[in-house]
Protein: DUF2256 domain-containing protein
Amino acid sequence: MTGMARRGGDNSEAGQNGSGKNGSGKMVRKGDLPTKICAQCGRPFTWRKKWERVWDEVRYCSDRCRSEAKKA
Ligand SMILES: [Zn+2]
Structure:
């Protein structure tokens, strides 16, 4: 009789049996809103509801920046 090399068939170590995390990686932000760079302070700002009709014309992140831009 030749020794029956009995190796455990179920070597479940290779499988993804580790952490129960099923992370899907990056989180997608809800409702990816458009952004612009403020022409006055140079910071990015995000679309706001109040700009929904004038978004194309919006240049500044706030009224403050807008008025400051006019001053200068
Ligand atoms: Zn600004």
User: Anything to note?
Assistant: Residues 32 and 70 are 31 Å apart (CA to CA). The two ends are 97 Å apart (CA to CA). The chain is about 10% helix and 10% strand.
